[in-house]
Each structure stands twice: as structure tokens, then as C-alpha cells.
Design a protein that fits this description.
Distance between the termini of chain B: 32 Å
Strand content of chain B: 25-35%
Radius of gyration of chain B: 17 Å
CATH topology of chain B: Rossmann fold
CATH superfamily of chain B: P-loop containing nucleotide triphosphate hydrolases
CATH architecture of chain B: 3-Layer(aba) Sandwich
Strand content of chain A: under 5%
Largest sheet of chain A: 2 strands, antiparallel
Strand order of the largest sheet of chain B: 6-7-8-3-9-10
Structural class of chain A: mainly alpha
Radius of gyration of chain A: 19 Å
Number of strands of chain A: 4
Shape of chain A: globular
Largest sheet of chain B: 6 strands, mixed
Number of domains of chain A: 1
Number of strands of chain B: 10
Oligomer: heterodimer
Structural class of chain B: alpha/beta
């Protein structure tokens, strides 16, 4: 079957759009996963999350350029994100726990500072990024062309989802985080040092944002200071759709947003930017708590 | 008999409100010490103050002769004080097993033996081991909350209104469990149900408007009609 646009077959088009959507979705998922954990457990609205994303991208890419190892670049991004998370939680977030207005103001301020620091250090223009040679190019399976790097992002996304799902569901650390998300006061009364848990979760969330930024770089081919804010908005949309504090919800919502963006950009380009908002509005109307919101209320 | 917990002229604010305005209270080892008073008298806040959830602004809170007034909640718990809040504090999305596991600070033989003991005490928990906490009945949630507080070799367990909202038959079971748990730990009980409190309590402390107004042996209060009428509205 021929598609009505271009000369590719419908199957080829479908596979390409799905892979494209899944890859974008996975990148947004990595960003949103940290955000949803931070919001779910700590009740912190972190608008600086995009700043951590863009710092991860720059730190990772420059480490990659310097060492010529993409893997070391990834490690560099994760370490940078975790350290920034540590500093941010200790200096910026701790004084504003429990006050959403102050959290929004101070983290938005931090977002701008992080963004402007990138411009000061690397200039206002974007930096071109090359995909590592072993991840560049594509595979042809019959009529279908699969771009290697996109598939790589999808695989990394699912691996990270699997690791986090296992940790959350099957380990004591995961139990503590899930308990803390539902009832911080009770978790403390059981002897759990919840502030320390907060710090670790914040660092992990920041590291995930940085990893997402690093993986995004070869995908988009260029990194620039403002990319953090652009993707953070998508991250927030995904958290709202998926349900605050839900890791699985974030994955599903990120895939939905990724696929919707990919298909809309092809079939109805004029709606490609609005589709995420439309999705969020639909979910908010029919399920205001999101698709998989955790029960935070205490039992009675 | 040793004093386990001592509150001396404790004052606590919640926001701008001066809730506790002079609480004096002692809990002895091996006893059930009951905090009594009308709604809003400050009983729940007293328990929260002991746990460090609403820290005292003035006065002293001592556990085993050491001040715990400035300890964060998690440290108070680790010292050996278990807490069963009024609304049970069950993690609704966690199963019964997970609720128990998250409470365990060690997974040694002694802890597992205590787990077996509470599962014998509350067989329903064993039956619904894999069921989410949010799907349990009110009585089962109460049992789970008490079992969770007991699992870490707690020297003292604070239980807030365990009979609230429960059917009489379930209240009886909870009472039996408290009597059984008393053999292994000490208990501070907040209870509106005077019948229940009088049957299982050894001592009482009456609280009114955030102040301790009377204390003594429970058997004396049972016959003290004036105190019961004045501070509990019964008799």
C-alpha cells in the first residue's frame, strides 16, 4: 500500500513514525521520571529540571568529545546531574519544602541561572553533535528502515524503566520510596530518615534528567541553552497525564505524547505542537488525578 | 516499676495555636497508660509531640531517662517507640506484606519471630498477606497498624483511638490484642471509649484544654463519678 505522502509504503511509514514517536517518548520519559519521583515523594515542584537536562547534555557531550567515548560521556552526564541535584536539594530546595509558590519562584530562577551559565560558558549558539559511529546509520529490514540511534534510545529507555520498576517493586529501598510517596509522616514514624531519602531521590531524578539531555543531543543533532525549558514543559505534561508520583504512568504518558507528536507532525502538522496540550486537557477532564496516580490519602 | 516515658510541663504549638499548655504525664514499664479527655483536649497532639511530629516548644520529654524533645521523628522511632496513629497510617498501595516489611528495621530471627507472633495474634493479616492495604477493612487496618508498630521490638507503643469507627466485635478483638501485646511491651493508649480504656488501662491521665488535670490508677477513676462527669461527660 502506498501512503498519500511521499513514496514510501504504509508499513515503512508506520514503523518510522512509531519508532520516532517511541524514541522521543523515551527521552521525555527519562526527564519526566525524575520529575514525577521528586513531585510524588517530596511534593516539590522543580521547574529547574530542564536546567539539569541541559547541563547533562553539555557535560555529557563535552566529556564525549574530550574522551571520544560515548559511554564515558553518558557517565559524565549522570555524575554531573547527580552532583547538581545534591547541590540544588541542599541549597535551594531544603529551605522551601512545603511552600509551592516559593518552590516555583526559586526553581524557575535556578532554571534561568543554569541556562544563562551555559550561554556564558559555551556561547549563545548551539553546538553541533555527532552520533557515535557505531550508533549512526540505519538497518534496512525489507522495506522498513530503522535508524540505529532511535532504537538505541528506546532500548535504553526500557532498560531504565525495568531497573527502576524492579527497584521500586522488589527492593527495600523501593518500598521505602513508595511508602514515603504515600505518607511521609507515617514513614518517619516507622524510623525512616525521610529527608535523606528525599535527597537521594532528588539526586536520582536529576541524574535521569541529565541522562535524558545527553541522549537527546545526538538525536536532535544540536544542543543549545534553551532546550531545557522546551523539554521540561513536555516533562510536566507527561507527569500530569501519567499521574503524580507514578513511574509506570510517566512511561505510558511519555509514549502517548511521543507517538501523538510523531503522527500529528506527519498527518496534521498544524496541530503537532498543540496535541500534547489537547491530550493533557482530555486526561484532566476525565481523570484529573492522571492515568496512574498513587493513592496518597491516608486510610481511615 | 521503672518510668519509661515522662512528660514535664510540655507545651506545643501547631501553627499559631497553643495546643498543649502544660502536659505532665508518666508511662511505667509493663503497663497500659491511658490518656483520657474530651474531643480536642490535646490527646492526639500529646502522642504526636512524643513522636516529634509536632515538637514541643517548652517543657521536657524523656524516654528511658534521656531527653527526646529535640529528636526528629525517625530517631524517636529508632529508640523503640512504635506509633499507631488515629487513622492507622496504612500505606494504601502497599500490600500487607510490604507494609510489614517497610516497618522492619532488621530482618533477623528475632524480628521474624515477632512477625510470626503478631500474625498469630491477627490471623486476618496472614489471610490477606498479598492484599493492598487500601483494600482492608477498618478493623484489619487497625490490626496491621498495631502489628507494624510491634515488629521492631518496641519498648513502648503509642496507640491513638484504636476503637474509633470499629464494630463492637472488632473492638473486642483489638482489646484482646492490646492485653496480649502488653505482656511484651508497654503501651500508651488514647481512647474515647471509657469502657474499653477502663478494662485494659492500669493508669490514667486526664487532659483538658491542653493541660493535665488529673492522673492516678484506673481502678480509682472507675469509681470517681465527679471526675468522669466533669472531664469525660459520663457518669
Amino acid at each position: 500500500m502506498e501512503s498519500d505522502k511521499g513514496g514510501c509504503t504504509f508499513l515503512e511509514l508506520l514503523v518510522n513514525l512509531v519508532i520516532n514517536g517511541l524514541a522521543t517518548g523515551m527521552l521525555i520519559f527519562l526527564l519526566a521520571a525524575g520529575l514525577t519521583l521528586i513531585f510524588g515523594l517530596m511534593d516539590v515542584l522543580n521547574f529547574a529540571h530542564g536546567g539539569l537536562f541541559v547541563w547533562g547534555a553539555y557535560a555529557g557531550i563535552f566529556t564525549y568529545m574530550f574522551t571520544e567515548s560515548f559511554l564515558i560521556g553518558i557517565v559524565g552526564a549522570i555524575v554531573t546531574g547527580a552532583l547538581l541535584g545534591l547541590i540544588t536539594e541542599k541549597l535551594i530546595i531544603t529551605p522551601v519544602y512545603g511552600n509551592h509558590i516559593q518552590q516555583i519562584l526559586i526553581t524557575l530562577g535556578l532554571m534561568l541561572v543554569l541556562q544563562e551559565m551555559i550561554k556564558v560558558a559555551f556561547g549563545p549558539n548551539g553546538v553541533a553533535v555527532k552520533t557515535p559511529s557505531y550508533l549512526a546509520g540505519s538497518w534496512e529490514i525489507g522495506d522498513v528502515i530503522i535508524i540505529k540511534y532511535r532504537l538505541f534510545i528506546i532500548v535504553v529507555g526500557f532498560i531504565i524503566f525495568g531497573i527502576f520498576q524492579y527497584t521500586l517493586k522488589k527492593t527495600k529501598v523501593g518500598l521505602i520510596v513508595r511508602a514515603g510517596v504515600q505518607d511521609k509522616e507515617m514513614a518517619q514514624a516507622l524510623g525512616i530518615h525521610i529527608k535523606q531519602v528525599f535527597l537521594y531521590v532528588f539526586m536520582v531524578g536529576a541524574a535521569l534528567a541529565a541522562l535524558s539531555g545527553m541522549l537527546m543531543a545526538p538525536y536532535s543533532g544540536v544542543i543549545y541553552a534553551e532546550m531545557g525549558m522546551e523539554y521540561a514543559i513536555l516533562g510536566f505534561i507527561v507527569v500530569v497525564i501519567g499521574g503524580m508520583g507514578s513511574f509506570s504512568g510517566s512511561l505510558l504518558a511519555a509514549i502517548l505524547v511521543g507517538l501523538a507528536g510523531s503522527f500529528m507532525a506527519y498527518y496534521v502538522p498544524v496541530l503537532s505542537l498543540a496535541v500534547n496540550m489537547i491530550l493533557m486537557a482530555i486526561v484532566l477532564i476525565f481523570r484529573p488525578q492522571g492515568l496512574f496516580a498513587m493513592r496518597k490519602e491516608r486510610s481511615t | 516499676m521503672n518510668t519509661l516515658l515522662k512528660l514535664n510541663d510540655v507545651h506545643t504549638y501547631i501553627g499559631q495555636y497553643h495546643i498543649l499548655q502544660g502536659i505532665n504525664f508518666e508511662a511505667m514499664e509493663g503497663q497500659v497508660s491511658v490518656l483520657l479527655g474530651r474531643n480536642g483536649a490535646g490527646k492526639t497532639t500529646t502522642l504526636k509531640t512524643i513522636m516529634g511530629l509536632t515538637p514541643a516548644s517548652k517543657g521536657e520529654v524523656e524516654f528511658r531517662a534521656h531527653s527526646i524533645k529535640k529528636n526528629p521523628t525517625y530517631k524517636v522511632a529508632k529508640l523503640g517507640i512504635g506509633y499507631v496513629p488515629e487513622n492507622q497510617g496504612i500505606f494504601a498501595d502497599l500490600t500487607v506484606e510490604e507494609n510489614m516489611k517497610v516497618a522492619m528495621r532488621k530482618e533477623d530471627t528475632a524480628t521474624l519471630e515477632r512477625q510470626n507472633y503478631v500474625l498469630e495474634l491477627f490471623p486476618d493479616l496472614k489471610k490477606f498477606w498479598k492484599k493492598a492495604g487500601g483494600h482492608l477493612s477498618g478493623g484489619q487496618k487497625q490490626m496491621l497498624s498495631m502489628a507494624r508498630a510491634f515488629i521492631n521490638d518496641s519498648k513502648l507503643i503509642l496507640i491513638d483511638e484504636p476503637s474509633k469507627g470499629l464494630a463492637p466485635i472488632v473492638v473486642e478483638k483489638v482489646m484482646e490484642a492490646i492485653v496480649e501485646m502488653k505482656k511484651q511491651t508497654s503501651i500508651v493508649l488514647v481512647e474515647q471509649n471509657f469502657m474499653m480504656a477502663s478494662q485494659i488501662g492500669d493508669t490514667y491521665t486526664l487532659i483538658d484544654d491542653g493541660r493535665t488535670v488529673h492522673s492516678g490508677k484506673m481502678k480509682d477513676l472507675i469509681h470517681h463519678e465527679e471526675l468522669k462527669r466533669k472531664y469525660l461527660g459520663i457518669g
